[in-house]
Amino acid sequence: MNQTPEPFQPALLLHDQIFQHLREQIIKGHLEEGKRLNEVNLQKMFKTSRTPIREAFRRLEAEGFVEFLPRKGAFVRSISVENLKEATEVRASIEGLAIRLAIRNVTPEHLDALAQLLDDMDEAYKRRNIERYTALHYRFHKYIVEMSGNQILIRLYVSITEPFVTNRLTYKYFTRLRRYKKVSHRKIYELLASGKASKANRLIEQHVMAIQNSIESPPGKKG
Question: From residue 214, how far is each of 54, 131, 139, 191 by CA, in Å?
Fold first, then answer.
């Protein structure tokens, strides 16, 4: 755990700063699955006592990033295919509802932002840039959920999806990207822009479930 914490907003409480730092390190893959979070090192890094560190650990546990093992401490949670399957099923339903709500709220500015994300995704795909493509892909889907304007839906979506944005899973997904691209992000965009709620709902749910199928299928198997 030798990553130097980035500058934080002064208004944040210390346990919020620690939480955000660890969460970012896990999402970026700097803290690998199964790694023990060392309280002593964190105390030295943040010049603090155990209390804010343990508060940060509890928040990470609540959001699915960390798990506690009796008499051993806090560890970065390992993600199984079954975990991913369950989360993907819920995510598909959330995104289906979100795109229906988003269609009610859509503005030209929203469409411009989504179009730019699609262009950036295409460029990252051509360059085989796994990290950038994955980040843009997540931003595209999250932006549609945010367009819904439903704060409960947005918080639920983030809590379900962000623990799965890890290098291990995204690498497996990216290596099978050609098969996954059968379901087009641009078609989702077109249906959203034209206000076709039922078709958009159905397509985005199929699109999300294709992620699960891509990761579950053995390498080399044709989908």
Answer: 37, 18, 20, 24
For residue 161, give the nearest of 143, 179, 178, 187 by alpha carbon. Answer: 143
Percent of the chain scored above 90 by pLDDT?
51
**This prediction's pTM:** 0.71
pLDDT exceeds cutoff 70 at 191: yes
Q: Which domain holds residue 33?
A: 14-76
Q: Domain holding 67: CATH number?
A: 1.10.10.10
Tens of pLDDT, residue by residue over 70-118, are 989 999 988 777 888 888 899 999 999 999 999 999 999 999 999 999 9
* 178 or 88, which is more confident: 88
**End position of a domain, from candidates 55, 76, 97:** 76
CA 93 to chain centre: 16
The count of structural domains within the chain is 2
Contacts by residues 103-110 (CB-CB < 8 Å, ≥ 24 positions apart): 103/192, 103/195, 103/196, 103/197, 103/200, 105/147, 105/148, 105/149, 106/147, 106/192, 106/193, 106/195, 110/143, 110/147
Q: What CATH number should be reported for the domain holding residue 158?
A: 1.20.120.530
